[in-house]
Specification:
Number of helices: 8
Shape: elongated
Order of helices and strands: HHHHHHHH
Number of strands: 0
Largest sheet: none
Helix content: 55-70%
Structural class: mainly alpha
Strand content: under 5%
Amino acid sequence: MKEIGSFMLLLLIILLVGLLAIAVIIAWSLGLGRLLQQIVPVLSLFEAGLLILAATSAVFFTALKLALSGGSSSSSYEPIWGDEDDDDDDDDDDEMPLSLDRFMGDEGFVTQEISLRYQLTNAVYLNLVASPDGPKMMTNAQLEALAVRLVDVIVAVLKRKPRNTPRVSLTIGAMKKELDRMGQRPYDDDILQIALGTANMLFSFDDDLADIVREKSWNEESDDY
């Protein structure tokens, strides 16, 4: 009986610790989400909290993997966004899961549109991977392809915006309308929210990307590459 009592006490402690951890995570996400919402008013509290949770999860799991690997470059862990042994000249591409070459066309140089697609697609992909509301049972290659398709929709919506638009942002309604124009099947709202939330945050913090949309400089050469 004493052993059963000790087991039940241990089980109760574990349950209480688990509930406390969940409460802390929710409070953290909503607290920082509300702060982010003040900075990016176009985001709802749910979207802001979701982005904070996704970012926190990505940082936590990355730190956990690094800790388990001992932080050594000789460990068996390899990041999905590149090979650490690549030449220094390729450092920028190594930081991104999808390489810049994937977005290159026949222009022979990196246009502003290619730069925008490259940065936004990688950001959407990383949030699809990290978000608990992201697609389940999909391989990395399938998630990459999904991110590319979502950014195709986002860029199509952005190109319809008037020149010098004061705020570069997207809505789920605009994305659904563009999908209908393209004749594509609709995506789940959760997936669209991840994509547009990522884009809205990126444009809010990166004026250079937002200026591409405002100035309609899609075909101009990018100075970043």
